[in-house]
């Protein structure tokens, strides 16, 4: 009944079992445990290349610390105007980079475009002492609008970034949802497309609290360990982060969870878009839906106990609905049935089959 976020969920049983198992006995601290020692090879297998991997507990820490090694304090980080990085990190990127400037770009459907990036970089003031210097382009996959950057879109952005000597950072809080949406390999979606550093999310997709900063450009990882420690994210009992990530990757749990979440989003939107007065704001390509509903329908859904966010303020009729790895089909059906009822569609019951 709660479609407010994929952060409202509990923990995948497989990950909880892994935490329980990791709790047995002792293990060396600060990443010297067997779980953390195994983790890098497991990421190498999934991404088909040599990587450096650093577990952290939050997405904000992953993004801010990753960017701290990708830009000098006088650098510029280019990102979407409504990106989580810009709108929801409470100044963490600026703080951990020592003052780098976030420069926003316009976009459509939650994504920036290569042409806009190229135009911005043409007028960036590179080499001029009075201006911040271009350093990084950051994209979110899946985007904050629930859309997904295609492989071609990432290649185009990365090509322009590399031509101007910029690094490419990917905020992958919902990376698994993007992988299954595109039906591609993790390698194709990252380093093969030009990504230097990925913040690999797990918390929104079944973990308790676990993210990983994955360096495809290993030279950028040289000082990251020190920065993670200085930032308070070198956990003494690191095994409990690494055990989550290991279980997340095992038997492709991360992809199975994301596949279910994406499927639930498709079923939910398919049941809503045919209702009168409903407008879909963005294509539904992962597990987030942005949709405009009549106020009477919203009030009825709230009265029935459904939870969600009004996305543009308390009076907005645009809702964000988010599905997750454990969303129940019964809750999808109930939401659609209630919406039909309050839209005065009292015909035969709706079925997901």
Which short descriptors sum up this protein?
Aspartate Aminotransferase, domain 2; 4-stranded antiparallel beta sheet; 2 domains; 7-stranded mixed beta sheet; alpha/beta; globular; 353 residues
The number of domains is 2
Structural class: alpha/beta
Largest sheet: 7 strands, mixed
* CATH-defined fold name of the largest domain: Aspartate Aminotransferase, domain 2
Poorly predicted ranges:
346-350
Overall CATH architecture of the largest domain: 3-Layer(aba) Sandwich
Radius of gyration of CA atoms, rounded to a whole number: 21 Å
Helix amount, in percent?
25-40%
N-to-C span:
20 Å
Q: How large is the share of residues in beta strands?
A: 15-25%
CATH class of the largest domain: Alpha Beta
The residue-averaged pLDDT reads 95
Major beta sheet, strand line-up: 1-7-6-5-4-2-3
Give the overall shape: globular
Count of individual helical segments: 14
SSE ordering: HHEHEHHEHEHEHHEEHHHEEHEEH
Care to give the gist of this entry?
By secondary structure, this protein is α/β, with parallel strands linked by helices.
Outline the structure in words.
The chain is α/β, with parallel strands linked by helices. It folds into two domains: 13-251, Aspartate Aminotransferase, domain 2 (3-Layer(aba) Sandwich); 254-342, Aspartate Aminotransferase, domain 1 (Alpha-Beta Complex), CATH 3.90.1150.10. It contains 14 helices and eleven strands. It has helices spanning 13-22, 34-47, 59-68, 84-87, 92-96, 114-122, 151-163, 175-182, 186-189, 224-230, 239-249, 253-272, 295-303, 329-342; strands at 52-56, 75-80, 101-105, 133-140, 167-172, 197-201, 211-215, 279-280, 288-292, 309-310, 318-322. A hairpin with a 7-residue loop joins strand 10 (309-310) and strand 11. Helix 12 (253-272) runs parallel beside helix 14 and helix 13 packs across helix 14 (329-342). The protein starts with 12 loop residues before the first helix and ends in an 11-residue tail after the last helix.
């Amino acid at each position: 009944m709660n479609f407010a976020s994929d952060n409202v969920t509990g923990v995948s049983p497989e990950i909880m079992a892994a935490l329980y198992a990791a709790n047995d006995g002792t293990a060396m601290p600060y990443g010297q445990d067997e779980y953390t020692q195994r983790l890098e090879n497991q990421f190498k297998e999934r991404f088909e290349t040599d990587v450096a991997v650093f577990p952290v507990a939050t997405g904000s820490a992953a993004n801010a610390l990753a960017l701290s090694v990708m830009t000098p304090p006088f650098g510029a980080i280019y990102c979407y105007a409504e990106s989580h990085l810009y709108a929801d990190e409470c100044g963490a990127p600026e703080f951990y980079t020592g003052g780098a400037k976030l420069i926003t770009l316009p976009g459509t459907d939650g994504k920036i475009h290569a042409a806009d990036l190229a135009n911005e970089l043409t007028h960036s003031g590179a080499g001029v002492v009075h201006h911040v210097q271009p350093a990084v382009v950051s994209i979110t996959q899946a985007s904050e609008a629930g859309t997904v950057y295609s492989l071609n879109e990432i290649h185009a952005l990365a090509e322009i970034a590399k031509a101007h000597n910029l690094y490419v950072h990917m905020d992958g809080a919902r990376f698994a949802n993007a992988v299954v949406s595109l039906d591609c390999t993790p390698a194709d979606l990252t380093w093969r497309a030009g990504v230097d550093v990925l913040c690999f999310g797990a918390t929104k997709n079944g973990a308790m609290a676990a993210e990983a900063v994955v360096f495809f450009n290993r030279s950028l990882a040289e000082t990251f360990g020190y920065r993670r420690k200085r930032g308070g994210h070198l956990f003494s009992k690191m095994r409990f982060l690494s055990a989550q990530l290991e279980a997340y990757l095992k038997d492709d749990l991360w992809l199975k969870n994301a596949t279910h979440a994406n499927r639930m989003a498709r079923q939910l939107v398919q049941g809503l878009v045919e209702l009168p007065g409903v407008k879909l704001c963005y294509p539904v390509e992962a597990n987030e839906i942005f949709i405009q509903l009549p106020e009477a329908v919203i009030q009825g859904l709230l009265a029935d106990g459904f939870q969600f966010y009004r996305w543009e303020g308390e009076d907005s009729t645009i809702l964000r609905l988010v599905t997750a790895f454990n969303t129940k089909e019964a809750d999808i059906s109930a939401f659609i049935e209630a919406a039909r009822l309050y839209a005065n569609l009292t015909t035969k019951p709706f079925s997901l089959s």
